[in-house]
Amino acid sequence: MRVELLTRDYPSQTRGEAGGHTVELTRALRRRIRVRVRCFHTERAEPDTYAYRGPEGHEQGYSAFQFLGAGLGMADDCFDADLVHSHTWATNAAGHVAGRLYGIPHVMTMQDKELLGAGHESEAAEERPDGRHALSGWMERASAHEADALIAESDATRETILALYPEVARERTHVIRPGVDTELWWPDHGAAVLDRFGIDPAKPIVMFAGPVTRRKGLPHLLRAAFLFRPDAQLVLCCEQPKSPEVAREVDELIDELSRRRAGVFRINSTLDQLGMRQLLAHATLFACPSVREATGAVNLKAMACGTPVVATAVGSIPEFVEHGDTGLLVRYEQHEDGSGEPVDRERFAFDLAHSVNVLLDDPELAARLGEAGRRRAVQDFSWDGAAERTLAVYQHLTADR
Question: N- to C-terminal Cα distance for the chain?
Answer without folding.
Answer: 11
